[in-house]
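Sequence and structure are kept together here, with a separate record for every protein. A complete record is shown below as an example:
=====
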Amino acid sequence: MKRVIVPLAGVLLAGALIAVPAGVYASPARENSKTITVGATPVPHVELLNLIAGDLSKEGYTLKVVEYNDYVQPNSALLSGDLTANFFQHLPYLESNAEWKASLSAAIAVHVEPFGLYSNKVKTVADLPGGATIAIPNDPTNGGRALLLLQSNGIITLKPGAGLEATPLDIAENPKNLRFRELEAAQLPRALGDVDAAAINGNYALQAGLNPIRDSLIIEGADSPYVNYVVVKKGTENDPPIQALSRALRSAKVKEYILSHYEGGVVAAF
């Protein structure tokens, strides 16, 4: 599911954005090179893009933002030429698919969204009962990320060699006999009422009104390798529109917004 946010030339102020139904935008290949079309998930990605629309306008670019609520369509749309770039993913996720890894490039490092374990039923991980059900993302890298978070906090032990794409089958020790439910990442906040705890990506936690620092039972440390990137087609990394997008997103203005707006739930990577 996606929503397209585009400026109406001659009606809105420069850099202003308005939502219109999906499917009405032209692909970047058919548009003027001064238009930058970026696919993104809502929080914080769309919010950060909206913040810089005026800055790009001053450089002569029109920003169009296409909003997605899943982790697959944005890469498909980028590969098909419907987008100039997308902004939603970390490098391990990008490299989990051979076609994405071969054709797409992580061009602009922007921020980290600390990944956490949340619960509506217990206050600490020590309170998790035996046989508790834990929901984790069903995509390989984020599912593995959840299990590594549990291992780093002494809750489970993974088999030697289990890496970023570990699955519940790679669990060697499970003292609490935890059970795992694998769900689409976007569904995890809604599943909190049905499970004992859920490991949730930072963007979906924020979108659901959860603050990773304040509300999580456990959270990734500052050394997290899961930086969120603006991703483009290989060979376009140094194109002027991408460089303009990089300057705008990695600015002091954006860093200050991240610091003041997300209360530690998003951490700048620049």
